[in-house]
Amino acid sequence: MRILVIGGGGREHALAWKLARSPRVQEVICAPGNAGTAAEPKVTNAPVADDDLDGLLRLARREAVDLTVVGPEAPLVAGVVDRFEAAGLRCFGPSAAAARLEGSKAFAKDFMARHAIPTAAYGTFTDSADARAFVERLGRPVAVKADGLAAGKGVVLADDAAEANAAVEEMLGGRFGGAGARVVVEERLEGEEASFLCLVDGEHILPLASSQDHKTLNEGDTGPNTGGMGAYSPAPVVTGGVAHRVMEEVVRPTVAGMAAEGTPFRGVLYAGLMIHQGRPRVLEFNCRFGDPECQPLMMRLRSDLAALLEKAAEGRLDANEAAWDPRPALTVVQAAGGYPGAYEKGHPIDGLDAVPEGDQLKVFHAGTARGPQGVVTAGGRVLGITALGASVAEARDRALGAADRIRWPGVYYRRDIGHRALGRG
Question: Is-above-0.90 flag for pTM?
Answer without folding.
Answer: yes
